[in-house]
Amino acid sequence: MDLRQYVVEQQRLVNEELDRVAPPESQSPETIHKAMRYSLFAGGKRLRPMLCMEACHAVGRRTEGVARAACALELIHTYSLIHDDLPALDNDDLRRGRPTNHKVFGEALAILAGDSLLTLAFEVLARLPQADGETRAALVAELAAASGTVEGMIAGQVRDIEGEGAQPTAERLEAIHRAKTGALLTASVRMGGIYGGATEEELAALTSYGRHIGLAFQIVDDVLDVEQPSETLGKTAGKDAAQRKITFPAVYGVEESKRMAEQELSKAHAALALFGERGARLHALADLMVRRTA
């Protein structure tokens, strides 16, 4: 199976699992479930669940049921996008090529839809049918830390808000994106390793891979915001510059940012040496994430 076929198949698998864990639109109160599913099934790439599942397969000790654990990452990611787009934060009208959640359902329901996806993520992990209690607890702790206020996603979002209009520096930039984007991407591969029963050495290798690919992913995201139109990105292009956000192109320029992304990609590949052929899909996903055009 080539990479394109593999990605399509993995997206289908994740979408089917998400459909099982998310309440149906017919479930009362219908409006909140419609709002949750509107953003959840808006056509995301499902990169975080794929990274989780492939990290689990690279470890190779226990893989059955990992797709459900991986879905918790997409629930958290989607909640963060709904809240990011709100008028109080990035105030965006477009996400994944569609009107943002608050534009369709109103601000109140958009806030609650994000809250609901966040809550559901931890319910999913707590009820994993094919993991023991110790593994479930470790997964909950990992995802909570990656989503939280101490070097997690929310910490990065706060620094991003506080950095608007500030002098762009390398130190501020790294502090924002190691947490805002990198933490959840690193958690994706760590959670796959935890589910699969990784050794300390394997988990350390996955952590290194996740950190490098997380930084590379964000660098590319910043560059695409400068170079690509809204129609290609599926979200409003040029927002970073308009809001005077601290980005890689703002600090380093576009060409140096591209060089840095390739450097981080090389380090991510090197981190997988321990896994040999078992890490092949993680190598391919790293290339896909860094060399994407949207």
- CATH-level-4 superfamily name: Farnesyl Diphosphate Synthase
CATH class: Mainly Alpha
Count the strands?
2
What is the overall silhouette? globular
Helix percentage range: over 70%
Reported CATH architecture: Orthogonal Bundle
Poorly predicted regions are none
Return the domain count: 1
Helix count? 16
* Strand proportion: under 5%
Give me the CATH fold name: Farnesyl Diphosphate Synthase
Q: How would you characterize the largest beta sheet?
A: 2 strands, antiparallel
Quaternary structure? single chain
Task: Report on the architecture of this protein.
- The chain has helices spanning 3-21, 30-40, 47-59, 66-84, 101-105, 107-126, 133-147, 153-163, 170-180, 182-196, 200-227, 230-233, 239-242, 248-252, 254-271, 280-290; strands at residues 94-95, 98-99.
- The protein has 294 residues and is an all-alpha fold.
- The chain has a single domain (3-290), classed as Farnesyl Diphosphate Synthase (Orthogonal Bundle), CATH 1.10.600.10.
- A two-stranded antiparallel sheet has the order 1-2.
- The longest helix has 28 residues, at 200-227.
